Amino acid sequence: MNSKKLYSFFVIGIIFANSSYALTNSQSGEIKYITGGIGDEERNTLKEAKDKYNLSVVSAARTGEYVGDTRLIISDQQGRELLDTEAGPLFYAQLPPGKYVVEAESRGQARKRQIIIGENKPSHIHFSWK
């Protein structure tokens, strides 16, 4: 077996040994984020990680069921777009302190929220869709 295959099996083994479900952290500029939450395992893993982030966004139908396939755009107070991504029902990001606009689009609808992230002040957004 070549070293690349051996390394791949080693990494996969570590992931499964340390977590029942592994998610990938992403980054856009200074913003680190993680998203998902379609299945129970994925949702539980995300909820365990949420304390590492200072912005949490939940996307759900008015009936309470989670909604995936939400486009999120985060802009700074000058209107510069910092992040444009497809998000699952749960989205967590680590932002530098400041004022931001979070726009969301799902199910043919659009929503916009202004938020303030402080040194020790996280922000939570719940987008509700028809």
Tell me about this structure.
There is one protein chain. By secondary structure, this protein is α+β, with helices and mostly antiparallel strands. The protein has one domain: Sandwich (Immunoglobulin-like), CATH 2.60.40.10. 20% of the residues lie in helices and 46% in strands. The protein is built from two helices and nine strands; from the N terminus they run H-E-E-H-E-E-E-E-E-E-E. The strands form two sheets. The protein has a five-stranded mixed beta sheet, with helices on one face. Strand 7 and strand 8 form a beta hairpin. 22% of the residues are buried. The model is unreliable at 1-21 (pLDDT under 50).
Order of helices and strands: HEEHEEEEEEE
CATH architecture: Sandwich
Number of helical segments with 4 or more residues: 2
Strands ordered across the widest β-sheet: 1-2-6-3-9
- Portion of residues in helices? 10-25%
Give the radius of gyration.
Answer: 17 Å
Mean pLDDT metric: 85
Number of domains: 1
For this structure, what is the CATH class?
Answer: Mainly Beta
- Uncertain ranges: 1-21
What's this, in brief?
The protein has a single domain, classed as Immunoglobulin-like, CATH 2.60.40.10. The protein contains two helices and nine strands.
Question: Which helices and strands appear, and what pairs or packs with what?
Answer:
Blueprint lengths: L2 H16 L7 E3 L2 E6 L3 H10 L5 E7 L8 E7 L4 E7 L2 E5 L3 E9 L2 E9 L5 E7 L1
Parallel strand pairs: 3-9
Antiparallel strand pairs: 1-2, 2-6, 3-6, 4-5, 4-7, 7-8
